Amino acid sequence: MRKMLPAPFSPRRLVRGVRPGLNMLLLSSVLVGSGLAPLRAQTVDDDQDFASQQLNLPKDLTVFGKSDPNVRKATAIVNGRIITGTDVDQRLALIITANGGKVSDDEKERLRVQVLRNLIDETLQIQEAAANDIKIAPEEVNQSYERVAGNFRQSPGQFDAYLRERGSAPASIKRQIEGELAWSRLLRRNIQPFVNVSEEEVKSVVDRLNAAKGSDEFRIGEIYLSSTPENRPQIIANARNIIEQIQKGGSFPAYARQFSEASTAAVGGDLGWIRPAQLPAELAQAATEMQVGQIAGPIETVGGVSILYVMDKRKVLTADPRDSLLSLKQLSVLFPQGTTKEQASAKAAAFATAIKEIKGCGQANEIGAKIGADVVDNDNVKVRDLPPQLQDILLNLQVGESTPPFGSITDGVRVLVVCGRDDPASANAPDAEQIQAQLEEERVNKRARIYLRDLRRDAVIEYN
To answer: Which InterPro entries match (predicted)?
Structure first.
């Protein structure tokens, strides 16, 4: 099992095992742009030779029949509980929706196999919880479902229709909500009480953080796929397919929830804020060579392969200027429908000339009215929440200065005027309770993976 130090910088909620969380999948809207080209895979011939010797396999073997363990019909019976083709189709429809509906036929078939595996795990978790007298009341499920619908600014009834239009169903989400609640409650009862973290361990983490002050730390997303010497080439091929889909606009968190076998799958593969030293050597090297927004992989590690995504970067325990809060005025001018590129450029140039007259925010409204621009006040805007192109510009502006004009023919042209800036306070190490919670979370997750692995091993599963 791969070991990784916890990331005590940004406490996250308890990860509920390795099964993806659909309610989180539906809330995912982060699209990953094109990143690094996939790294070249290392040779696995030596591993294959070792495995062949270990299993005493013949060098020239013949496969009798057409059995392919990677191709199964999308139905199964798990300890007597039937998973139908409709169950798989409805869950698959949600994944396709999360990826903007742009999924090839080949990718759909691969996703279908993964969805079936997820449904099997979900069924095992619900069954194990029931065996421990843990049952989730329908009222609890409905309350969670209402919150999911609310995140889409819809009533439960409207959300029902939304799901059906996309080939899914409310029952599919409610079943996954039930699975998450049941598994979480089971872990809190059977695992969490037996996980202990000492004061010495907490102090050790604090000491390491203070020693690393000023060094780089990254917010990393990871998709981890386990492999054996026998199936590693196929797993590497699967990883490359995932990278390709993400680079075409697929959601990294959505793919992490459906494919990653790490404990962070339920939070979209988010490892939190970590330093390279906390990662395995192969991943640490890749992370330090990447820029924010880039994706790399497949990276071979012990027991599998990983896909990395750098979400953000900062200095350990150091105030980051991008955490500054700005007060801004936005002046914008829309282009009439049918405006040509040449007409838009001319109007943008006139807009830019007028903006040069602004000497501080006090004149912004007056100039805006003169040129027919809409003026909107925006307070408490964090620099890091703005597009990367604007972050560097705004960090170098003084109060009263404005950005160059930006926009498009569709959205019009606009500028931002800096009216105020609150610099971030000096960063301090997280308190002992936060660190202890992170260490406990990591240990609970490790035991949860073992727990689910044992459930799979003991299950009676029939494929139709």
So the answer is: OMP_Chaperone_SurA, PPIase_dom_sf, PPIase_PpiC, SurA_N, Trigger_fact/SurA_dom_sf
